[in-house]
Amino acid sequence: MIEHSFTTRKIDCFNPNRIALSGQCFRWSIIDDTHVELIAFGEYLQIAYLGDSTFAFSCYESDFSRIWEDYFDLNRDYISVIDSIDPEDSYLTSASSFSYGIRILKQEPFETMISYIISQRRSIPSITTCVERLCRLCARKIILPALCFEASPFTASLHEEYYAFPEAKDLNKLTFDDISSIGAGYRTDYIMNATKDICSGRIDLTYLYELSDDKLYEALISMRGIGAKVANCIMLFGYSRTSRFPIDVWMSRIVEKNYGGSFDTSKYPDTAGIMQQFMFFYERNTFR
DNA sequence: GGCCAGGCCTCGC
DNA sequence: GCGAGGCATGGC
Fold it and tell me: Is the peptide bond before A166 cis (omega within 30 degrees of 0)?
């Protein structure tokens, strides 16, 4: 039997456009209302919305089950996560409703680590620019799948060329001036140190999967340029530790304004990070 | 042109 | 242990 060159799935609680705007990932782009494109695992993927909660993905079925299903966190029941929200918490209830369809991606640890090191004290558009420059600098060019994106259900890609996120050994070849040239500023030193930690074996990103939350956190903040916030983002978005609750300037304002200065994460021992993402997205995309 | 950005490090107390 | 200051650069 011939495998189709794309995959369709009916998926509840999945909104690619919202995920693209959610601020957890920096290599997703909205093409139009029903098309999104992204780079991950060294590949280009386009998602087309077909209506009735059904989506087309520009990959083979085998790759969808092998890579993307897990990446999109499709085996988690987000409806029950939303149902678990304290009904008396009106802010979170509104936030979850506004953010319906956002999932926490299971991103690659190295990409997540470097991206969030870059993220500190920068706006999301600025992070995106900086990450993109880093990918171009290392120039691991992606071969687009043999698919005609002009044809339905897909559409033309936004760009001619795409680049994978570099591997640690790629970054290890770069000089200080190379990394500085992407606009990394004072984070250049942090990126070089993290790369060195990984290439030397002091930090083994694969081994970190095995660690408990506490041990993983300790390992991450032992790295130069990684503090509490960045470590929690790496844990949440790179290691699927959905109990983590990163607090940045936005979350800090939200907690101050709506929860008297501290949010009780113990109500959501396994899903506080998901709640955090709902709040973050809600606050940044509404003007109330 | 000024202000803020998905913060962290160092220093002084 | 904790608060203040400094930090490179981009986007609006």
Answer: no
**A121: nt with nearest C1' to CA:** B5
Residues A89-145: pLDDT tens digits? 999 999 999 999 999 999 999 999 999 999 999 999 999 999 999 999 998 999 887
* pLDDT, tens only, A202-261: 999 999 999 999 999 999 999 999 999 999 999 999 999 999 999 999 999 999 999 999
* Range A180-198 burial, b when 16+ CB lie within 10 A, else e: bebebeebbebbbebbbbb
Are A79 and A12 contacting, i.e. CB atoms less than 8 angstroms apart? Answer: yes
Distance A151 CA to C4 C1' (A): 58
Its sign, for the CA torsion A14, A110, A218, A215, is: positive
List A38's β-bridge partners, or say none: A28, A45
Residue A215 CA and nucleotide C11 C1' are separated, in Å, by: 37
Q: Identify the residues numbered 152 to 191 in chain A whose C-beta atom is closer than 7 Å to any atom of strand C.
A: 180, 183-186
Q: If you measure CA to C1', which residue is closest to nucleotide B9?
A: A225
Going from the C-alpha of A217 to that of each of A107, A111, A240, A279, the distances in angstroms are 17, 17, 13, 23
**Bases of strand B lying below 7 A from some protein CB:** 4-9
pTM (predicted TM-score) = 0.97
